[in-house]
Amino acid sequence: MAPVSRVSVSRTFISTFGFLIAWAYLSLLLNMPNWTGDLFGPNHMSPSLEVAAIFGLLALASAAGGRAGRSFCVGLALAALVLAALRLADISSHMLIGRPVDLSLDLMLLPAILEVLAGSASVPELAVAAVAVPAVLAGLYFLNLLAIRTAASFLERRPNRRLFAGTLAALAVPTLFGMAPYAPLDQGATALLRWQVAQAVQASALRAEHLDRFRSDPFAGLSEDAVLAHLGRRDVYVMFFESYGETVLADPRYRSVIEPTLADFDRALAGQGFGVRSGLIESPIRGGQSWLAHGTFLSGARLGDQGLYNLMLESGRQSLAHYFRRAGYETMAVMPALSRAWPEGAFWGFDRIWSTDDMGYAGPPFGWAAIPDQYTLDFIHRQKLRQRDRPLFIEYALISSHGPWEPLPPLLEDWDAIGDGSAFDGMAPPLPAEQPAWSGMTRNYADSVDYTLKVLRDYITRYISDDALIIVLGDHQPAPLITGDGASRSVPVHVISRDPELLAPFEEWGFNPGMIPASERQPLPMERFRDRFLAAFSARETG
User: Fold this and answer.
1) I need a surface site. Which of 71, 164, 301, 483 has the fewest CB within 10 A?
2) Does the residue 79 lie in any domain?
3) Residues 347 and 492 grouped into a single domain
4) Lowest-confidence region among 19-23, 48-52, 95-99, 491-495
């Protein structure tokens, strides 16, 4: 009898150990935090009460004489896979754009996300991803199924159910003394699902309220003669600078690279008779979705998500470009990364939209941001700034500082040699074959910002010979994996002109002389720029 007893004890030990492993595995899967720095921290390593509840249902079913069938286990395994995928999406969202994933909005962004990934990776990397992603998902599913079947099999025996019940009771004791043996429920899978539902319901409920707000425009009644009359028909260039965030000044790693370039920029401007005022603006976003920042700036309404952006397109609100058009300006958007149709461009009031296919670029691609900023500025200068019969309002999207920040284009000293971009042939270094494109990204980010600042310095001091008003501003902070968790949404803004009268309103806003904004000042919300600008430069104030 002794050998039989030893075999029984061994089987009991193995089944108990397997059950604990299944509980630990499912807890780690469903308790994943939204920030990689918290992985395997105390909350992540604590047992999941949600998994315990599922196991409790399995135990009750077994006690009632039932048994978890194959289809039931498969359903639970698939549900765990969906929750794990949602958790991974939430981590990615926090790391890249600094907010939780929102399925009601983010699913429609999948094509744009895939486009960025495809443009940032080499063909071998894309091939590996095409095989690895399905393989990982399949592996997770089979691990889920194995864990659930292991737990169901363990709980079919009455002694094991009693042991499980005793374990739950033991874990409940510390709660009497204010301790938390389980992972927090507000960070669990159920809370994440509940938040997704609440977001969808809230968005629907607030739709009418937002639409009414968007349609309320205090400047809609301005006469044509009054609109932007104080600009004196001077050209205005708005240069959105991709991922140019406050972190370049707040983080010593980046400041050591960027500050000398800003100081040199300042000296070069002064040498050509330009004045500059700088401040901070609070973007509605972080890490990505640049069009939300552009839309916020143009519309004067905070567009913090895709739902609000889509609602704005229905509102009929006049954008800043519309007001420039009413003032007799030719309005243009220069978008060198726009590679597909953009029907909503008409809503924003642009007479002409320059996309990738319009740029005539014959040089090599530089990663996702294929067309160098230097080429973009030179091309538009040759096409429009030398040949026009009306003042210009141009919104540029400068993209060379877009992630993953490599390969970086060179800065050509001879702008006359740029031509159709073939001057860049042979200057695009290949992506490293033995390491991913995202390695060394912090230095690459700093170098890309440094590059675009030098391009702007050279372009403005070489080619802007009149009293134009130039507004250079970041669209958003870079991804939180560059800034760290908890960084602000502030971006620098520089206003440049030879005419002191055009700079005076920005001094009243709190902007300071020079290229380095005062960090102690409260940033101006980006959605307030339009109304302040219209009030400052129109012949009369409204509202």
Assistant:
1) 71
2) yes
3) yes
4) 95-99
Going through 327-452 in order, the beta strands assigned E by DSSP cover 330-334, 352-354, 392-398
Domain range for 165 is 2-198
The 10s digit of each residue's pLDDT in 115-126 is 666 655 666 766
Q: What residue type is 521 in one-letter code? A: R
Report the pLDDT value the prediction gives residue 460, as an integer from 0 to 100: 95
Non-local (6+) Cβ contacts of 396 within 8 A are 237, 238, 239, 240, 334, 376, 377, 380
189, 250: one domain: no
Q: pTM of the prediction?
A: 0.77
Mean residue pLDDT of the chain comes to 82
Strand-pair partners of 492? 280
Name the token pair of 515. 């290229």
- Tokens representing 542 are 């409204």
Residue 204: burial class (beta carbons within 10 Å; 0-12, 13-18, 19+): exposed
Q: Are strands 392-398 and 236-241 parallel, antiparallel or unpaired?
A: parallel
The percent of residues above 90 in pLDDT, for the chain, comes to 31
Please tell me the predicted confidence (pLDDT) of residue 441.
Answer: 77
In a domain, 204, yes or no: no
- Quote the distance between the C-alpha of residue 191 and its chain's center: 23
Query: Does one domain contain both 307 and 421?
Result: yes
Residues 240 and 150 in one domain: no
Q: For residues 497 and 486, give the distance between their C-alpha atoms in angstroms, rounded to a whole number.
A: 35
Asked if 270 and 356 sit in the same domain, the reply is yes
- Residue at 209 is within a domain: no
Neighbours of 105 (CB within 10 A): 18
**Is the confidence at residue 56, as pLDDT, over 60?**
yes
173 part of a folded domain:
yes
Average pLDDT over every residue of 214-232: 86
Conformation bin of residue 227: beta by default, left when phi > 0, alpha when psi is -120 to 50: beta
Q: Domain check: are 454 and 363 in the same one?
A: yes
